[in-house]
Amino acid sequence: MHGAAVPDADLARQREVVDAFLAAAREGDFAALVALLDPEPVVRVDGAARAGISVVRGAAAVAEQVLVTGGLARMGSLRW
After folding, report:
1. Taking a C-beta distance cutoff of 8 angstroms, is the pair 21, 62 a contact?
2. Which of 8, 36, 68, 79 measures 20 to 30 Å from 15, CA to CA?
3. Separation CA 43–CA 59 (nearest Å)
C-alpha cells in the first residue's frame, strides 16, 4: 500500500494483535477495536454491482463497520 507503515517484524506481536482484534470483533467490543486500530485507517470496501466502492475513514468508523457487518467475526479463528 502506498504510504503504509512497515509492519512490526515481531510475528508473535502481530499474532497477538490480530487475535485481539478478532476477539473484540466477535465480542462486539467497540472500545477494544478502536484501541487496536491505527487512529486514521482507511478501508475500501468493494460492494460490487450493488454499491460500487465505498471508503471508511477513521478508527471509530472502521470499528463500527466491523461490528455492523460482522464480517470479521464470521471469519472464525486464524491458524498460525
Report:
1. no
2. 68
3. 10
pLDDT band at 50 (very low <50, low <70, confident <90, very high): low
**Across-strand partners of 46?**
53
Q: Residue holding cell 498460525?
A: 80
pTM of the model: 0.69
User: Dihedral angle at the C-alpha atoms of 66, 68, 69, 72, nearest 10 degrees?
Assistant: 30
Inter-CA distances, 56 with 39, 41, 48, Å: 13, 8, 16
